[in-house]
Amino acid sequence: MKLLCAEYNEQGSFTVGVIGDNALLRNNNDFYFPAFTRELSCVPQLVFRACKLGKGVSERFAGRYYNEVGVGLRFYADTLESELKMKGLPCGVAAAFDDSAAQSELRDYQGENVNYSLQVNETTVFTGTMRELPLHADEFVALASGFYMIKIGDFFYCGNPYRYRGLQIGDRLRMYMGEECMMDFHIR
User: Fold this and answer.
1) Rounded distance between C-alpha atoms, residue 106 and residue 182, angstroms
2) 143 FRET partner, CA 20 to 30 A, in 16, 97, 133, 150?
3) Which residue from 131, 129, 126, 130 is spatially nearest to 174, judged by alpha carbons?
4) Which 8-state DSSP code applies to residue 159?
5) What is the C-alpha to C-alpha distance for residues 98 and 25, in angstroms, rounded to an integer?
6) pLDDT, tens only, 68-123
7) How far apart are CA 53 and CA 66, in angstroms?
8) DSSP β-ladder status, 155-157 and 101-103
9) CATH code for position 10
10) Which residue range(s) make up the domain with 29?
11) Helix, strand or coil for residue 158?
12) Longest C-alpha distance within the chain, in Å?
């Protein structure tokens, strides 16, 4: 199983990243602030689970390749990312470390528009919908399958241009899908 992740820059351009399942943080387990960074950020996102094997999937048929949806958070070690960029090195390790991709339980996806939000310490800092994503799930599946074989059980982290910066030890993070709280955990 792999995590296929949409990565955005400030201008809204995107690419596909792939990370291993070592990055998964599930069951509302607490996230532990990494020792290799001083600054930490996160990106709220929708997560879809692949239900079909495929390669080179047309956008027209991409909706047939996922059947469950949930919410997720990707964590970024900002200090490490900055240091690597200054040295001209790839920054993947700053977002693909152990437990860097929190994920909720998944629900059956019926093709509806999904609303989701992020709360940090009881304050809503982000709200969005599937329709507002610069890269719709179908577009992302088609793009990702051009580079990687889609396997049953893979996860599509649809990304988001929004990035919440300044996470601290003790912060409480909650993610909602619609009105339902899907994730609720702390940074330790």
Assistant:
1) 9
2) 97
3) 126
4) -
5) 8
6) 999 999 999 999 999 999 999 999 999 999 999 999 999 999 888 999 999 999 99
7) 10
8) unpaired
9) 3.90.850.10
10) 2-186
11) coil
12) 45
